[in-house]
Amino acid sequence: MLEKYVILHKPDAVRPGRGPGAFPAAEEEPRPPRVDVDELKPARAAAVRQHRSTMAMAPVMPMKLIQPVAIGEADAAAAGPTWGVRAVGADTSPWTGAGVVVAVLDTGIDPNHPAFAGVQLVRRNFTEEGDDDAHGHGTHCAGTIFGRDVAGTRIGVARGVQKALIGKVLGEGGGGSDQIVQAINWAVGEGANVLSMSLGIDFPGYVAYLEGKGVPTDLATSMALEGYRTNVDLFEAIAALVSAQAGFGRTALLVAAAGNESRRDVNADYEIAVSPPAVAKGFVSVAALADAASGFAIADFSNTGARVAGPGVNVVSAKRGGGLVSMSGTSMATPHVAGVAALWAQKLAAENSLDLRNLEARLTGTASAARLVAGFDPVDVGVGMVQAPQD
Fold first, then answer.
1. 3.40.50.200, 3.40.50.12160, 3.90.420.10, 3.40.50.300: which CATH number matches 62-205+239-381?
2. Taking a C-beta distance cutoff of 8 angstroms, is the pair 196, 335 a contact?
3. Angle between helices 330-350 and 137-146 (to 10 degrees)
4. CATH 3.40.50.200 in the chain, residue ranges
5. Helix extents (H) in the chain
C-alpha cells in the first residue's frame, strides 16, 4: 500500500565563508534542513528510514484546527485592554515587541483588518486554497499576538511587532503534518523569533482515512498509533534542529496549544493529555485559563500536562472581515503566550542576551500561580499564567 510520508533530512553544515564541509566541525552553522514529502511502498519506506541522511520520518497525518469551543459577540461598549492583556501584565509592561519577528501558523489572516495596519505581513500558503483566512481563527490569533487597538479596545499583547510571518497551513479541509513541518522550517529560515501554533493531530481522521483504504478498524487503529508516535518523533527532531541553530544567533521559540479535548464539565476525571505537536519535546505547550470570580481557573476543555497557561476563555480579538469577536479555547491562550514571549525577546535583545535558552527560561520562570483559584491542579496549568516583563 502506498503511503504518504514526510521526511526530514539531516542538515549539511557550512562554516562561514568556506562552503559545504565534508565533515562538519562543532563551530559550523547548520544549513536549514530539507523536508521532502513522497508516496512510498513499505519496502522503499523502510530503506529511506534507514538512510544515513534521514533524521526523522513519519506518515503524513491529518492536522486539524483546534476549534474554539465557543464563539460570541464582543462587547461593543468595552474599551481599554482585554482581560487577557491585563492578566499577563502586558498593559503595564514597557516593552512592545518592537524588533521581534513572530510567526503564526494557522488558517491565514485577514490582511485588510485595521488591527494589522502598519504591520509587514509576510505570507506563505501551504494549502491548495486561497491565501486569505476563510475561517477567522488565524486572524483572531494574530490579533491577540500583535494586533493594534480596534475601536478603543486593546487586543494585542505585543502591539509593537512590526513584522509577522503568516503561514497558512490549515484550510477548510484541515491540513497535514507535512505542511506544519514545512511551515516551521520556512518560518525559522525567515528569522522568526516566536512561532505560534493553535493546531493538533487529527487521530480519528487518520483512522478513518486508513479504513477508507480498506484497512480493518483494529489494524487501522494500530497503524494510526504508530503514525502518532513517529509524528511526535518528527516534531521533536525539527525542534532539536531549531534548538541547535540557537548557538548561531537564531532564536526561535515554538509555542503550541495543548488541545480542547478534556471534558471536566461532564466529569472531573475526563482529562486528556496534551496533543501533538505541543506534546513534543522542544515545544512550549499552553493550557487555557478562565477569569473566574475567585481567580483564574483551568478551562473545562483544556488538556492537561501543559507547561504554561494563558487566558483562553471569552478572549476578544480581531474578527475576519473587520471588528471584534470573542472566542474560547487553548487556541486563544497560545497567542497570549506567544505575545508575552515576544515582549521578553525584545527585553533580552536590549540586554544583548537573547537566545533560546534565556527566552524560554524567562517565559516559564516568571509565570505565576499566585492568582489561580484555590485547589488548582499544577498538572493542569504547568508553572502558571505567563507574565510580561515589567522593567
1. 3.40.50.200
2. yes
3. 30
4. 62-205+239-381
5. 42-50, 83-87, 137-146, 177-189, 203-212, 217-244, 330-350, 356-365, 378-381
**CB neighbours of 235 closer than 8 A, spacing ≥ 6?**
180, 181, 276, 277, 280, 282, 283
Report angle CA 360, 361, 364 to the nearest 5 degrees: 80
Q: pTM of the entire structure?
A: 0.93
pLDDT in tens, 241-280: 999 887 777 899 999 999 998 999 899 889 999 999 999 9
Closest by Cα among 130, 288, 134 to 198? 288
**CB under 8 A, 24+ apart: contacts of 387-390:** 387/88, 387/89, 387/340, 388/88, 388/89, 388/90, 388/92, 388/93, 388/95, 388/157, 388/340, 388/343, 388/344, 389/93, 389/94, 389/95, 389/343, 389/344, 389/347, 389/362, 390/89, 390/92, 390/93, 390/94
Per residue in 173-225, pLDDT (tens digit) is: 889 999 999 999 999 999 999 999 999 988 888 999 899 999 999 999 999 99
Lookup: cell for 185:
522550517
- What does the alpha-carbon distance between residue 277 and residue 198 come to, in Å, rounded to a whole number? 10
8 Å CB contact between 277 and 63: no
Q: Tell me the catalytic residues.
A: 106, 137, 331
Start-to-end Cα distance in the chain: 59
Whether pLDDT at 22 is above 90: no
194 - beta bridge partners? 102, 253
Tell me: pLDDT of 102 over 50: yes
Q: Give CA angle at 105 (241, 274), nearest 5°.
A: 75
- Residue from 232, 283, 290 nearest 256 by CA: 283
Of the candidates 383, 358, 353, which has an alpha carbon nearest to the alpha carbon of residue 368? 383
**Which residue type is seen at 373?**
V
- Contact assessment for residue 96 and residue 169, using Cβ atoms and an 8 Å cutoff: no
- Looking at residue 21, its pLDDT comes to 38
